[in-house]
């Protein structure tokens, strides 16, 4: 009986050891999973910290009218939105950043009025020798495709690299709805996104680019698209337009 009791006791000890070992082994993935989740959260937090808000949602601090040609009173701020009030006379003009930027990812939201036209201009060199901001800066078109005459012109539709490259896809939302535009420009590699869809991909300042510009309405502008470090502008085309969540990060 003693021998049988010892055998049974031995079996119980062995079973308990195996059971505990499996329980411990089964719990091992828990720590790495928590670690991965923590790392993802940290990465997202770090990414958010990289973004710099260009518009604080309350004021026009950091912005001014191109060459200070007006007091900018037509550009107003309300409820976190930057917009142009076309009823204000002599207070408009292209609104551009005070600072210059290079190698960046720009993200913002826009909403256009019925039959409206505007644009996001980048690579702007502010100098008295240039009459308009578009003399140096390419433009991502902001447009009511169905209502504005430019909607009938190839390479002039919403999301296009204005007068240079037309998008094969048109993910633009109806008039009155917010669209998200993104511009990534790094070492002359230019990508533009509309509502998460890549609509334009090209290289600036190479032979193909120069040839494309030579065949556009910008052909007489010798410095067009030459400045990869420049200011960012919101175009006043005489129509109501709204912008919000304007931010940038260095790439």
Q: Classify the secondary structure makeup into a structural class.
A: alpha+beta
Whole-number tally of structural domains = 2
CATH topology of the largest domain: Jelly Rolls
The level of helicity is 10-25%
- For CATH, the homologous superfamily of the largest domain is named as Exo-inulinase, domain 1
Q: Give the biggest beta sheet.
A: 8 strands, antiparallel
- Broad CATH class of the largest domain: Mainly Beta
Low-confidence stretches: 1-36
Number of strands: 13
Kindly report how far apart the N and C termini lie. 79 Å
The number of helical elements comes to 3
**Mean pLDDT over the full residue set:** 87
Beta-strand portion reads 25-35%
Q: Return the CATH architecture of the largest domain.
A: Sandwich
Query: Helix and strand string, N-terminal first?
Result: HHEEEEEEEEEEEHEE
Shape summary: globular
Radius of gyration: 28 Å
Provide the fold topology.
Layout: H1 2-27, H2 30-50, E1 52-53, E2 63-65, E3 75-78, E4 81-84, E5 95-97, E6 104-112, E7 117-124, E8 139-143, E9 179-186, E10 189-194, E11 197-203, H3 207-214, E12 231-234, E13 241-250
Antiparallel strand pairs: 1-13, 2-5, 3-4, 4-13, 5-12, 6-9, 6-13, 7-8, 7-12, 9-10, 10-11
């Amino acid at each position: 009986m003693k021998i049988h009791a010892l055998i049974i006791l031995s079996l119980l000890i062995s079973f308990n050891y195996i059971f505990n070992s499996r329980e411990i082994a089964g719990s091992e993935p828990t720590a790495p999973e928590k670690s991965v989740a923590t790392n993802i959260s940290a990465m997202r937090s770090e990414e958010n910290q990289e973004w710099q808000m260009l518009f604080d949602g309350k004021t026009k601090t950091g912005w001014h009218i191109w060459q200070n040609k007006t007091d900018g009173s037509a550009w107003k701020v309300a409820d976190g939105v930057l917009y142009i009030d076309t009823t204000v006379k002599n207070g408009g003009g292209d609104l551009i950043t005070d600072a210059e930027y290079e190698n960046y990812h720009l993200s913002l939201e826009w909403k256009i009025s019925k039959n409206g036209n505007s644009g996001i201009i980048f690579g702007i060199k502010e100098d008295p020798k240039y009459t308009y901001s578009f003399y140096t800066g390419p433009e991502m078109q902001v447009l009511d495709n169905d209502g504005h005459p430019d909607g009938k012109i190839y390479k002039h539709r919403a999301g296009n690299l204005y007068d240079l490259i037309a998008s094969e896809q048109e993910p633009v939302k109806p008039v009155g709805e917010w669209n998200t535009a993104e511009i990534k420009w790094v070492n002359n590699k230019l990508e533009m996104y509309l509502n998460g869809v890549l609509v334009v991909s090209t290289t600036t300042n190479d032979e193909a680019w120069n040839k494309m510009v030579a065949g556009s309405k910008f052909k007489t502008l010798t410095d067009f698209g030459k400045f990869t470090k420049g200011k960012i502008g919101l175009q006043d085309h005489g129509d109501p337009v709204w912008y919000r969540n304007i931010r940038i990060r260095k790439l």
